């Protein structure tokens, strides 16, 4: 896809031994989707009776049958492009719809919200295939991105002082929330001149993952990389291990600290506890250090932690390297970004296939919890509203209590404000408008999609070469990760990080934020990220019944190009997501001393 290529395979199928396995196409796609788009064409002729005319009407008969033949061919053409099952070996996402979405009846299928646009997108992709055009969005649209280089690993001077005590952090959340907590803890330990104990990860009933730091990250690299900046130990000293932190007043929960607290708050409230008890235990520690009013050395230390000190363990790197190899179909180091995420598991020799493939990684945030919490409408009518309300009552009772006290915006208003998660259908329309052809290999990251296979139908129909880690890796290869959601998420982190293009649908997602920041830091201006504005896209999609495809294409392209502009980190924004600032990176390759 980087240039004109010969014919390409229709699938990315692998088995446990050689990497090839057969995919079973989703039953029911054809009847439901074909009926939606071909009904109008068939209806014009349904029930029409053809009578044998006398000889004098032979010309009329010939004309009639010619028209019928033309529409039959057109109907077959539309069928082939709207029904993914014509690709007999095409990959299909391994989605088994949840009980919440169960049902094979046509009435239980998820809706297509923008059928006319999807139809136009299909014809546009067909034309692009014939013309073999290559989209410019495989590359960064702004070359000045290459002028920013990584440099947060440069050593900083540290005043030699005796430690004021020990900081212990028990971080909550999933992989990405915990990653942020670890680097914030490093900065706080340096701020308070304390010794940091290797952070612990709390077990969550949501994530259900008992993984600890050493199961995900390499401890020795973490400690060695930061040894000149902060003292780090693996355990508390023996005399503190039996401390009842709550009883002595050393337990600090998220309720005890402001969200995105300032350094002054830590010095004012936490330093006295360290001086008195010699230890502080932060429980939860979710987003409890702000991004402003922080000394430059601490911002730089956060970057050093995130981009240099946290390396996935060999178990994760090895399987991630296999996963990436099976998508790209070649071996060999391609970039600094690859080496940072895959470590030593990139073979030294380069073995290229006849047509090495690029791939786009797509992070969809359309899980049932995200959909339910948004309070938006996704075209599913009463059935959808009943399902999502039941889910809220079970999982988000506090949300419902808040909604009783104040009238919430309507679903229509929420969509206009850009607060609704993008559906797979909307993601497909964005990709099609940017010119990614039907043969584009797409790696889908994330959890199970709300609505299952039927909700995925527009995306899979336009882009049949769509795969997940479950498609590319055998059950045997995935078994060691099966009950460890954070380790599985690490595979997605790597696959998205080293992709040729990374497309996000929710800028607030921790995975999307951290991966896009990683690509900015190590990408060298050659790791584009697509960031659609949900608010602007909603305004464009409001015109779905009247807008032409060229107009839709032009407006979406403008939106994406503006989102790719090279900007310095704005005040208050996460340095993990936007590292392009002199506290974290160097412009034009020069080392900036701060």
TrEMBL record:
Localization, per the record, is: Membrane
Its primary localisation, in coarse terms, equals membrane
Keyword terms of this UniProt record: Carbohydrate metabolism, Fucose metabolism, Glycoprotein, Glycosyltransferase, Membrane, Transferase, Transmembrane, Transmembrane helix
The Gene Ontology terms for molecular function here are:
glycosyltransferase activity
Q: How does it sit in the membrane?
A: Single-pass membrane protein
Q: Which Pfam families does the entry mention?
A: O-FucT
Keyword Membrane found: yes
Segments crossing the lipid bilayer = 58-82
Gene Ontology BP terms: fucose metabolic process
Q: In which pathway does it act?
A: Glycan metabolism
Q: Which GO terms describe its cellular component?
A: membrane
Q: Which InterPro entries match?
A: FucosylTrfase_pln, GDP-Fuc_O-FucTrfase, GT106_glycosyltransferase
Q: This protein is called what? A: O-fucosyltransferase family protein
């Amino acid at each position: 896809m980087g240039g004109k290529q010969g014919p390409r395979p229709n699938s990315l199928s692998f088995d446990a031994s050689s990497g090839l396995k057969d995919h079973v196409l989703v039953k029911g796609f054809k009847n439901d989707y074909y009926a939606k788009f071909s009904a109008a064409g068939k209806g014009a002729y349904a029930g029409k009776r053809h009578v044998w005319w006398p000889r004098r009407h032979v010309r009329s008969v010939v004309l009639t049958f010619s028209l019928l033949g033309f529409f039959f061919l057109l109907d077959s053409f539309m069928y082939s492009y709207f029904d993914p099952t014509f690709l007999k070996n095409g990959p299909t996402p391994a989605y088994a719809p949840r009980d919440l979405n169960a049902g094979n009846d046509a009435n239980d299928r998820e809706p297509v919200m923008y059928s006319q646009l999807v139809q136009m997108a299909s014809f546009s992709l067909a034309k692009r295939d014939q013309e073999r055009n290559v989209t410019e969005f495989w590359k960064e649209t702004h070359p000045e991105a290459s002028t920013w280089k990584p440099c947060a690993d440069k050593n900083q001077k540290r005043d030699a002082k005796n430690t004021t005590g020990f900081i212990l952090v028990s971080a909550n959340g999933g992989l990405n929330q915990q990653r942020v907590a670890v680097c914030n803890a490093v900065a706080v330990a340096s701020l308070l001149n304390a010794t940091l104990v290797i952070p612990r990860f709390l077990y969550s009933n949501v994530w259900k993952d008992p993984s600890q730091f050493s199961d995900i990250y390499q401890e020795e690299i973490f400690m060695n990389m930061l040894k000149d900046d902060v003292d780090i130990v693996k355990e508390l000293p023996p005399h503190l291990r039996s401390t009842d932190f709550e009883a002595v007043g050393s337990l600090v929960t998220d309720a005890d600290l402001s969200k995105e607290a300032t350094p002054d708050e830590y010095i004012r409230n936490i330093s006295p506890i360290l001086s008195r008890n010699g230890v502080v235990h932060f429980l939860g520690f979710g987003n409890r250090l702000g991004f402003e009013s922080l000394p430059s050395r601490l911002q730089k230390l956060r970057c050093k932690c995130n981009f240099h000190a946290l390396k996935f363990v060999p178990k994760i790197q090895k399987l991630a390297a296999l996963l990436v190899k099976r998508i790209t179909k070649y071996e060999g180091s391609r970039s600094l970004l690859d080496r940072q995420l895959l470590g030593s598991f990139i073979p030294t020799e380069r073995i290229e296939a006849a047509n090495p493939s690029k791939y786009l990684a797509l992070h969809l945030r359309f899980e049932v919890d995200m959909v339910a919490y948004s309070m938006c409408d996704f075209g599913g009518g009463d059935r959808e509203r009943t399902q999502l309300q039941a889910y809220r009552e079970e999982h988000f009772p506090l949300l419902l209590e808040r909604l009783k006290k104040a009238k919430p915006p309507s679903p229509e208003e929420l969509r206009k404000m850009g607060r609704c998660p993008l559906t797979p259908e909307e993601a497909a329309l964005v990709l099609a408008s940017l010119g990614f052809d039907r043969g584009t290999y797409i790696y889908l990251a994330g959890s199970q999609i709300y609505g299952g296979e039927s909700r995925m139908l527009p995306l899979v129909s336009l882009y049949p070469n769509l795969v997940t880690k479950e498609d590319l890796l055998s059950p045997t290869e995935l078994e060691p990760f099966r009950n460890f959601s954070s380790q599985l998420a690490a595979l997605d982190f790597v696959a998205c990080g080293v992709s040729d293009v990374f497309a996000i649908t929710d800028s607030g997602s921790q995975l999307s934020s951290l991966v896009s920041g990683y690509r900015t830091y190590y990408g060298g201006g050659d790791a584009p990220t697509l960031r659609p504005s949900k608010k602007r896209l909603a305004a464009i999609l409001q015109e779905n019944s009247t807008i032409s495809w060229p107009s839709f294409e032009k407006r979406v392209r403008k939106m994406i190009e503006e989102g790719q502009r090279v900007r310095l980190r704005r005040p208050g924004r996460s340095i993990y997501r936007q590292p392009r600032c002199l506290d974290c990176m160097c412009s034009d390759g020069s080392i900036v001393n701060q």
